[in-house]
Amino acid sequence: MKRAFDFAAAAAGLAALALPLAVVAVLVRATSPGPAVYWSQRVGRGNRLFPMPKFRTMRIDTPEVATHLLDDPHRWLTPVGPFLRKTSLDELPQLWSVLVGHMSLVGPRPALFNQDDLVAARTAAGVHALRPGVTGWAQINGRDELAIPEKVALDADYLARASFLFDLKILLGTVAPVVLGRGVRA
């Protein structure tokens, strides 16, 4: 049921958001050199790597590490990057990953390929068995502000409580942090 819901919602979302997606792509290309969409290697279900798309919010010469590991993340942002991150518009291309089955609408956020500490902690907690999500329990309880142990504890709690109704609660709970731009770094 979860996969069918994910597929239908992602297909509907991509169709309904086609024009806004095109506008954001044009804005990214018009304000900085490089492609509009950035594909990063992320850790998916079973710790397998998959390519995850996002609208590019950072310059093309940015080191490929988690934003919080950059010395001065703001210096790497594109002119529209802060707005896209605050509004989470940069995340919309991930609907493609949901459509093709690499991601779910709800699950733990996919780690970067080089976030070994996060991947190891999630594996120890059994969270690696889950399909990563566009949003998740940790996302609505702190987003980027959470330390790895807190994030993994929330991911493990999601694993223990996973259900269609819990997913709906998380989807509804995603609205306020996104609209208010809470918990987003750089």
From TrEMBL:
PANTHER family: COLANIC BIOSYNTHESIS UDP-GLUCOSE LIPID CARRIER TRANSFERASE (PTHR30576), SLL5057 PROTEIN (PTHR30576:SF10). InterPro entries: Bact_transf (IPR003362). GO terms for molecular function: phosphotransferase activity, for other substituted phosphate groups. Keywords: Exopolysaccharide synthesis, Transferase. Belongs to the bacterial sugar transferase family. It comes from the Bacteria. Pfam families: Bac_transf. GO terms for biological process: polysaccharide biosynthetic process. This is Lipid carrier--UDP-N-acetylgalactosaminyltransferase. Residues 2-178 form the Bacterial sugar transferase domain. It comes from Caulobacter radicis. The keyword Iron does not apply.
